[in-house]
Amino acid sequence: MTTQPGTGPVAHDPATLPADDNVNAYTFCVELKGTQWFLQKGKMIAYYGSIDFNGIGHGRLDRLVRTSFHSPLHASDWVVAEGSGKMLLADRAFDVNSYDLENGNLTIRSGNLLAFQPTLALKQSIVPGFLTLIGTGKFVAASNGPVVFMDPPIRVDPQALVGWADCPSPCHHYDHGYMTGAMGGLRALTGLGGASGEEHQFEFVGAGTVLLQSSEALMAEQATGATPQQAGVPGGGGVTGGHGSQGGAPRFPGQLGDLQRRFGL
Amino acid sequence: MFRLQGSKVLAVDMTGDAVRAKNGSMVAYDGQMAFKKMSGGGEGIRGMVTRRITGEQMTMMEVKGHGTCWFADRASEINLVGLRGEKLYVESSNLLATEAGLRTGTSFTGLRGASQGNGLFTTTVEGHGQAAIMSDGPAVVLRVSAQYPLTVDPGAYVAHQGNLRQSFQSGVTFRTFMGEGGGEAFQIRFEGDGLVYVQPSERNTIAGDV
């Protein structure tokens, strides 16, 4: 922490700023040495040195996007920082942390991911609203309150879930005894009769790690891009519920689907 | 004497002296205290008129007495800044308290202010003593020197002190209009010698979505 009680804050300069590490719980410092990082738009708060920010999907970066970025429609929310210097990242005073992946995979809620190294490949998850990072490298993610790591089997509250690594089985779990039957239906519809708000959880089993934040405040979701219009693709069919910012007008049979959105109609 | 109690509460020990603080920011006190609202932030008629015209409004109160007084505002993080004759530039909304030996005023910021969505003027604090400034999340203090100029996102800028020149950088290109901007279209570049305070959060700025 930079503010010890009673003393002034510590002044940082490029020599004292850490390389690819946290400055404090809320600020992360990335060191660029002619290298590149992907970051979500608007998360850079300051930098030393000469760093360029380019929207991706722009000619020179095409190859990079092809190799480490796999959701074409999502691309407009991301920029590539390249150059040399030190760059500070932060997000609405939420806790930020970096994670290292070694030939691994990690799926994370789209709004929580701040930045990642291009050695990782970013892909849309089959679970709508989540992104999966595959490969080896470092990424930075934000959470409301510190992140806790849990081992499955575990059932977690949907709002507290940040992501999971290596777990093969994220699925819904309902408290059936409480939710079924005439009384259960009534309770669910009206909220009368004492809904605890905890009748629905996500369940994880198998080997892996589940990441939870210590609050149930969700971060604004980032659109993860449209999924192909195919039968059997979650989120790709007629129902886009749960896609967060993709809401908008309901889709009717015969409509062109996301083509309209692509063309801004 | 300013000291932090935790990171979100400012405790001031007073022995008959006075401090100026944001109106309504007192949360507790111990001993004998008198609170007096200062019209125009205690800058006299001229300061009052300037503040009215520039929109850099600030309601301050003067607290005087013996004992300890605690200040806080919306659970913002508080940062102490010691001034020895330098000038501190801070947004009026981020200024919590100043010691009696400090004067406040207004100054023109130009395009930086406009890009922050905070108006074209900013508050200056000058003299000898301590000031307490607020930020959303603990502020990071960055040193600017001749060989290390610094570039800051306008939304994360809180305050700066020292002998700094600031210039406004715009990265708006035709790609911005194609929806492929770099996301950091407006930046403030600081050169010279001094300290810049940035917060780990961005205010909504007009450039926020560019």
Describe, in plain words, how this protein is organized in 3D.
The complex is a heterodimer of chains A (265) and B (210). Chain A has 265 residues and is mainly β. Chain A folds into 2 domains: 21-142, 4-Layer Sandwich (Double-stranded beta-helix); 150-213, no CATH class. Chain A contains 4 helices and 15 strands. Chain A has helices spanning 62-68, 176-179, 181-190, 258-262; strands spanning 11-12, 21-24, 27-40, 44-55, 78-89, 95-109, 113-116, 120-124, 130-143, 147-150, 154-156, 161-165, 171-174, 200-204, 209-213. In chain A, strands 2, 3, 4, 5, 6, 7, 8, 9, 10, 12 and 15 form an 11-stranded antiparallel β-sheet that branches. Chain A has a 3-stranded antiparallel β-sheet with strand order 11-14-13, with no helix packed on it. In chain A, strand 8 (120-124) and strand 9 (130-143) form a beta hairpin. Chain A is globular, with a radius of gyration of 21 Å. Residues 1-7 and 238-249 of chain A have low confidence and may be disordered. With 210 residues, chain B is mostly beta strands. Chain B has a single domain, classed as 4-Layer Sandwich (Double-stranded beta-helix). Helices cover 10% and strands 57% of the residues of chain B. Chain B has helices spanning 44-54, 111-116, 174-177, and strands at residues 2-5, 9-22, 26-38, 60-71, 77-90, 95-99, 102-108, 121-135, 140-144, 150-152, 157-170, 186-198. In chain B, strands 1, 2, 3, 4, 5, 6, 7, 8, 9, 10, 11 and 12 form a 12-stranded antiparallel β-sheet that branches. In chain B, strand 1 and strand 2 (9-22) form a beta hairpin. The longest helix of chain B has 11 residues, at 44-54. Chain B is globular. Mean pLDDT of chain B is 80; it is low at 174-180 and 206-210. Classes of the chains: A mainly beta (265), B mainly beta (210). Strand 4 of chain A pairs antiparallel with strand 10 of chain B, so a sheet runs across the interface.
